[in-house]
Amino acid sequence: MLIKGYLDGPLVAGESLLARPGFWPNHLLAMCGDGACAERPVPEWFGDDGADVDALSEVLFDPERWPVFRVPAEDGPGAVVIYRNLVGDYGTDYLLTHPDGSRAQQIAGREGDAPGIGLTWHELVRIADNPPAAADSAQDGAVRLLLLLPLLADVDLPEAARERITVALTATRAPQDTAATTADHLLAHLERRSRHDPTWESPLSGSRTAGQRSGTP
């Protein structure tokens, strides 16, 4: 797998990891590290335990294999999530992809919590709900939504957002009796970040250009 700007990285398709126990705590719990959550973040929010998380983290953060998760959209720009496992420079990069696959531009990176440019709720749902008919990529709407959830930067979320995230969590094995609370924890972080970080803008709005890396996924 080749993506311009990552040619020195051993990129591998990561979609097979999405159903593995421990994936969602590894991907989402870092969002709750800023103190906005009233409770200590734990893997059990997602139906997993510490052993699950530790076992999968060895795969997700392997310097010799950088998992790539592709989230193209049928009707417009999609996204790619790259676990950048460069020794001394670990992080998660989010790239916006052109509909025809001709180019990709980095819109955010996460080293703990260091976002760049975010998506509105409407943009996030559009990408999640419009997978291409045939593609080597994440296809399930719940999975697509949660993969890109760290990009959410909307200061005025609709009431339906909490329910949509709750449903996505239960669809990916989070316990039904605590999924709504988990959604609240995630939204508490996202809303706090959106309201206090003036650098957040939508990469689809045309108001700002971001592109530290570009190429073809």
Secondary structure layout:
Blueprint: E1 11-13, H1 23-28, H2 50-60, E2 66-73, E3 76-86, E4 89-97, E5 104-110, H3 121-128, H4 141-148, H5 160-171, H6 179-196
Parallel strand pairs: 1-2
Antiparallel strand pairs: 2-3, 3-4, 4-5
Describe the structure.
This protein is α+β, with helices and mostly antiparallel strands and 217 residues long. It has 6 helices and 5 strands. It has helices at residues 23-28, 50-60, 121-128, 141-148, 160-171, 179-196; strands at 11-13, 66-73, 76-86, 89-97, 104-110. The chain has a 5-stranded mixed beta sheet with strand order 1-2-3-4-5, covered by helices on one side. α3 packs antiparallel against α4. The longest helix has 18 residues, at 179-196.
Strand order of the largest sheet: 1-2-3-4-5
Estimate percent helicity.
25-40%
How many β-strands, per DSSP? 5
N- to C-terminal distance = 7 Å
Oligomerization: single chain
Query: Mind summarizing the main beta sheet?
Result: 5 strands, mixed
Based on helices, strands and strand pairing, what is the structural class? alpha+beta
Q: Average pLDDT, to the nearest integer?
A: 84
Number of helices: 6
Shape: globular
Percentage of residues in DSSP E strands: 15-25%
H/E topology pattern: EHHEEEEHHHH
Question: Ranges with pLDDT <50 over ≥5 residues?
Answer: 207-216
Radius of gyration using CA atoms only:
16 Å
